[in-house]
Write a structure and sequence with these properties.
The two termini are 27 Å apart. The protein is 53% helix and 0% strand. The radius of gyration is 14 Å and the shape is globular. It is mostly helical. The protein is built from four helices and no strands.
Length: 115
């Protein structure tokens, strides 16, 4: 998904300027990077910097499995009274991490069933 598609998905539920969206997107990715290793969040961790300008029409720098979680987290950050979005975001991000981990570690399934 491109960032523009994610932005449009967010805007279907609430009004948000592109500048505000990009700020909330960066904050959301920062939360993901604080929780998980960058190799399991970003497609190319070495190329991504928060200070760089993000192209709205370019592909999102994160794995597509995180799209739903990012949309819900941005909705929560925009309106903190919407705690349902935060709960969805937390459960979706854990599931997304599991899917990315399984995709990257196809042969290493020893601990995967414990989730």
């Amino acid at each position: 998904m491109t960032l523009l598609q994610i932005y449009e998905a967010v805007c279907r539920k609430t009004e948000l300027s592109q500048g505000r969206f990009l700020a909330l997107y960066r904050q959301t990715v920062s939360e993901l990077l604080g929780e998980f290793e960058s190799g399991y969040v970003l497609l190319s961790p070495g190329d991504f910097r928060f200070s760089d300008e993000i192209d709205m029409h370019g592909d999102a720098p994160h794995f597509e499995e995180y799209d739903a979680s990012i949309v819900d987290n941005i909705l929560y950050l925009n309106d903190r009274a919407d705690t349902a979005s935060k709960q969805l975001s937390l459960s979706e991000r854990a599931e997304a991490y599991r899917r990315v981990w399984a995709k990257k570690n196809k042969r290493r399934t020893a601990g995967a069933r414990a989730w």
